[in-house]
């Protein structure tokens, strides 16, 4: 997925469309950081056992 987003950024840079390239780069960096944060939080909760204990409890 990241290859496609950054590939679009490279394409727009080399075709001279810098504003669109900057938007693609900003979107790609924001999505990558957000997804990495969510995955990191979930994996740390799974390692501590908090997530598995809270599933099914109300």
Automatic annotation (TrEMBL):
Residue ranges crossing the lipid bilayer per the database entry: 20-42
Superkingdom field: Bacteria
Alphabetical UniProt keywords: Membrane, Transmembrane, Transmembrane helix
Protein's recorded name: Glycosyltransferase
Organism, as annotated: Lactobacillus gigeriorum DSM 23908 = CRBIP 24.85
């Amino acid at each position: 997925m990241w290859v496609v987003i950054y590939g679009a950024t490279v394409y727009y840079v080399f075709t001279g469309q810098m504003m669109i390239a900057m938007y693609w780069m900003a979107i790609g960096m924001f999505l990558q950081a957000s997804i990495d944060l969510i995955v990191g939080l979930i994996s740390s909760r799974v390692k501590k056992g908090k997530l598995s204990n809270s599933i099914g409890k109300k």
